[in-house]
Amino acid sequence: MLDETAEGVFAIAVTPFLPNGAIDWESVDRMVEFYIAMGATGLTILGMMGEAGKLTAEESVALVKRVVARSTVPVVVGVSAPGFAAMKALATASMDLGAAGVMVAPSSNLRTDAQIITYYHSTAEVLGAAPFVLQDFPLVTNVVISTDVILKIVTDCPTCVMLKHEDWPGLEKISALRAASDNGARRISILCGNGGLYLLEEMLRGADGAMTGFAYPEMMAQVVSAYQSGDETRARDIFDAYLPMVRYEAQPGLGLAIRKHTLAQRGVIAHDTLRKPGAVLRETTKREVQLLAARQDERLQALEVR
Amino acid sequence: MLDETAEGVFAIAVTPFLPNGAIDWESVDRMVEFYIAMGATGLTILGMMGEAGKLTAEESVALVKRVVARSTVPVVVGVSAPGFAAMKALATASMDLGAAGVMVAPSSNLRTDAQIITYYHSTAEVLGAAPFVLQDFPLVTNVVISTDVILKIVTDCPTCVMLKHEDWPGLEKISALRAASDNGARRISILCGNGGLYLLEEMLRGADGAMTGFAYPEMMAQVVSAYQSGDETRARDIFDAYLPMVRYEAQPGLGLAIRKHTLAQRGVIAHDTLRKPGAVLRETTKREVQLLAARQDERLQALEVR
Amino acid sequence: MLDETAEGVFAIAVTPFLPNGAIDWESVDRMVEFYIAMGATGLTILGMMGEAGKLTAEESVALVKRVVARSTVPVVVGVSAPGFAAMKALATASMDLGAAGVMVAPSSNLRTDAQIITYYHSTAEVLGAAPFVLQDFPLVTNVVISTDVILKIVTDCPTCVMLKHEDWPGLEKISALRAASDNGARRISILCGNGGLYLLEEMLRGADGAMTGFAYPEMMAQVVSAYQSGDETRARDIFDAYLPMVRYEAQPGLGLAIRKHTLAQRGVIAHDTLRKPGAVLRETTKREVQLLAARQDERLQALEVR
Amino acid sequence: MLDETAEGVFAIAVTPFLPNGAIDWESVDRMVEFYIAMGATGLTILGMMGEAGKLTAEESVALVKRVVARSTVPVVVGVSAPGFAAMKALATASMDLGAAGVMVAPSSNLRTDAQIITYYHSTAEVLGAAPFVLQDFPLVTNVVISTDVILKIVTDCPTCVMLKHEDWPGLEKISALRAASDNGARRISILCGNGGLYLLEEMLRGADGAMTGFAYPEMMAQVVSAYQSGDETRARDIFDAYLPMVRYEAQPGLGLAIRKHTLAQRGVIAHDTLRKPGAVLRETTKREVQLLAARQDERLQALEVR
User: Fold this and answer.
1) What's the burial of C39, exposed, middle or buried (CB within 10 Å: 0-12/13-18/19+)?
2) Alpha carbon of C145: minimum distance to chain A alpha carbons (Å)
3) pLDDT tens digits, D237-275
4) Which of A53, A57, A118 sits opposite B57 (nearest CB)?
5) Which residues from B are below 8 Å from A276, CB to CB?
6) Which of residues 257-286 of C touch D (CB under 8 A)?
């Protein structure tokens, strides 16, 4: 079961599809193994980058089953839904299948502090004993959650064990949450998103690792590891080597297509297919990725990372 | 099967719940009969006011089955979903169960004209032979669809047979669409929403009726009927008699709670329960409704409507 | 100087233009006299419906000067601006010219409770001794202000003397604010907007009157007066007589064009010109207004209101 | 006068303030000289990053006067305003004072293609002979402008001579616009924003340079220059050396405070003051900037850039 001590890299997994749009189960298996081999300490499926909204309820449950069966690390399942009935159905099924916890983003119509707090009170009630991750991603949800509101939810809901931190800018939020736990608030796990674009500063502020889906998960694993072993310079060197690609993959909407393309190039998934509506990569974009990857390889060799 | 000739009043049905939150199937049956007895020429279920987002996929299909089995008028099913897979699953199940058509609101992230047109091209492709209603409700979807874009969709997608008109202000849009069909564009059915607040002007502009959920559906039936029989003054008298209540029910978010309260008061549904998150009526509000209903009754008696 | 005891009807004044787009100063004078003759106890200029954003800084000050010179009732000036420097410049000029107070809507990028509170702290600091009205209009500002946040601002900022109440739905907010002042919070004036669509219920909940721009300000004056004299039935009769027109004018964006058209028809302003970008009324709309006005006259004669 | 041939780096200038919030005129002069010394081929003032919305109308004109008097390169003035009257007033004053052109972002309430096109038709009409830059920055304006809409504006408005490109993702838009001009559409200048985060790919797609405010404008000048001289590898090396800082400054809202801090550290402006509301840098952030700057210096020395 997921708890407040979770750390390292929870890879946000894509959902691999065949060219006809069906789930590509063989690629699912390969992908699970890949993420773990690259250093993932956990997996997150059915997140926004997992095209969760494009699956049917049946497909979602089937994916949870397949991933949990294959994974040797904890699996977190995104269960955000327009209503609590669907959220409860998927969360219950997921926990029954062996998921370690679930993740919930706020409903995009929430605005005031009280509305957000009430929403997570209801979420915690609906989820029962299942540990949950609060996903804080204003760029997409359009819901801005203040540090005080997060702390209130942490105080009121013991099953809230992790923050998926994806506010932008969000570094001060990490500092404030850690200062609060230094002063007696419950300390929950903070894993950071945004494709890893601020990973180093996030670690320095007190994050426990990353929960994001950059197509080179080994970057996050190595940066977190170097940082935790006290070698900040090494962490920076590795981070900088990958940064041009991190930046390129950070393009909203397009990023998932780039990520799937890279995973396909790396042999992890068989096809870079996205379900509609989804971006389709043009040749120019593929060439730009290729150029970035070539320079990245050179830098990594110079660093003797591989 | 729903087609371009649809007219009259398609009642937007609520989804009745028991106090424990389960669907209240007996109230569903009673509600279907009520709407038809009050003059509905069609029913629309699983719309926004049907709390569609709060049902599980299984519940949605079960509701379609129950309503279609009971109804003697065409049933339209709201199938808007975050992705096309879930849309297709519910649409296919609904049409198989005997629904007359489906309704699709645009995904709220659509912005440019081309994005909206592409979305409905994909929708039509996904839905196959099922006739569909284009729901144009910018206040909630945050997507503004121009008249030209609607006409493009009507031209490109023969299965688009109806516009659920709910832009605000939207009267000019009706006039423009009717002018276009006078000039050769395919004429589709236009049924209007917004709780009936502009019903009379909408009819005068060329709408074919209403598709909305005001708790007194007989108002819409009588206004449409009076207008169609040429008695515009009678139509206005009836409309004005109900207007204070129409206006009161038009409060966003709160409106559904008021509507369910009224339907419960009228004996149509057993409970005014909303699933969370939903507004709860305070006593002050209930008294305001009661006062409005009493004055409404007086005015209707003066008009000898009942 | 505006204070917490303000009540009655503060008419939201339009800004009259000549057909060439220049300010029509003669119509400004006539309009001021008209609003007061119709029962206005105050005037509000340079609000959203005053096309404030379409004036230059110089024109805004000139308008304040002209209106204040002519008015025998307190004048409130809308000073909302993208930044505090422009807000301060207009507020200072207005108070120097004899305005009774100013009105400030929240900047549309505010989201959390703390951000809104900080914004009004800064506003109060910038405005100095000038009494101000907090404008709460989420439909346009996209900022949702909870009752608790309003109370916090009222507590922290003694110069906040009035709420322009325009949340929708917003009746519960009035009840909650009045319950709070019954329990010791400072009681500020609450004047309501939304074109008067909920005026009666707003009075019943504890509002002190209206601050809105319906083209028949006498409706608001008579409803408030009847209510305050204890004759609720009379208040409802008058309200209902005007309601079809209130509703028609309530169309967002289009409403101002309808309002100016009616004021021009009534001889108050010489031209119904809006500065660009602004709606232009088509003939069909003008006929609909004419029909509504004719029926309104009949109902008023039956009530012997005039 | 600005025209379609503009290229290189138009630096988005900050507005320097004294600690008391007044404009710091001496720093203005020094800043103008700095940007030009660092390779700027133009200056853009009163943009969003110039805190334009926080100045009074008088201050805006005074700033234009001071910068134009000092600058030896063309000056573009941001004249976006809630209404056309204020836009016209500032544009006329700026051109009279010797500005090379003006820049206009779309009003944030625009949604459909036709609304955006009409807005720029009106803009062009209001601006008369003044050449203008179309600012395409959806992340902030919330207005998504399709390539077709840009081309329509370019076709209809001969005074539209430049696109400030800041869509994200936006690389395909550059390619599409250049493909269109290869096929006969008028070719306008494209200068790119987003703090330079995608500058190299933007040049490869056909952009003419950058218009952005990264605190090391020499990076943009050198990258554009290296690229234009055919040395793409050199361009990438320089870009990558600065990228960790580009990324850090790209934090929305916070970015301007970081930029002003760096400019103050570099001795360009005397104070890093922002007018309220604005971010204030904490010590942790300043240390993070310092670390990034130190590593940046090392990389630049290795490249022998300085």
Assistant:
1) middle
2) 7
3) 999 999 999 999 999 999 999 999 999 999 999 999 999
4) A57
5) 84, 122
6) 275-277
**CA B247 – CA B243 distance, rounded (Å):** 6
The model's pLDDT over A269-303, given as tens digits with 9 standing for 90+, comes to: 999 999 988 889 999 999 999 999 999 999 999 99
Task: Confirm or reject contact between B252 and chain C (CB < 8 A).
Answer: yes
High-pLDDT (> 90) share of chain B, %:
97
Tokens of A275: 């379900």
Interacting residues of A280 by C-beta distance below 8 A, sequence separation 6+? A257, A274
- Spell out where A129-238 has E strands: 132-136, 160-165, 189-192, 209-212
DSSP A5: T
- The pLDDT of residue A305 is above 70: no
Distances from the Cα of D150 to the Cαs of D138, D174, D298, in angstroms? 13, 11, 42
Report the residue from C111, C115, C146 with minimal CB separation from A114. Answer: C146
Q: How many contacts does B have with D, using Cβ atoms within 8 A?
A: 24
By percentage, how much of chain A surpasses pLDDT 90?
A: 97
Cβ contacts below 8 Å, chain A against chain B, sum to 67
pTM score > 0.90 for this model? yes
- For an interface test with C, which of D20, D23, D56, D127 has the most C Cβ atoms less than 10 Å from its Cβ? D56
With 0-12 CB in 10 A as exposed, 13-18 as middle and 19+ as buried, what is C283?
exposed
Q: Does C86 touch chain D (CB under 8 A)?
A: yes
Give chain C's end-to-end CA distance (angstroms, integer).
Answer: 33
Q: Is D86 on the interface with C (CB under 8 A)?
A: yes
Predicted pLDDT at B304? 82
Q: Which of residues 109-138 of A touch C (CB under 8 A)?
A: 111-115
- Residue A185 forms contact with D (CB below 8 Å): no
Q: Which of C144, C203, C240 to mutate to test the interface with B (most CBs of B within 10 A)?
A: C240
Q: Which fold has domain B8-229?
A: TIM Barrel (3.20.20)
Kindly report the nearest CA distance between residue B53 and chain A, in angstroms.
Answer: 5
CB–CB contact B277 A107 (8 Å): yes
pLDDT of the residue at A262: 98
Distance CA B110, CA B106 (A): 7
Nearest to C218 by CA among C24, C41, C62: C41
Out of C56, C84, C108, the one facing D276 most closely (by C-beta) is C84
Instruction: Give the residues across from C136 on adjacent strands.
Output: C165
**Which pLDDT tens digit goes with each residue over B247-298?**
999 999 999 999 999 999 999 999 999 998 888 999 999 999 999 999 999 9
A205-249 per-position pLDDT tens digit: 999 999 999 999 999 999 999 999 999 999 999 999 999 999 999
pLDDT in tens, C204-261: 999 999 999 999 999 999 999 999 999 999 999 999 999 999 999 999 999 999 999 9
Two tokens, residue A296: 């990245």
Interface touch C198/B247, C-beta < 8 Å: yes
**Average pLDDT estimate for D270-285:** 94
Residue A131: cis peptide before it, omega within 30 degrees of 0: no
The domain limits of chain C are 8-229
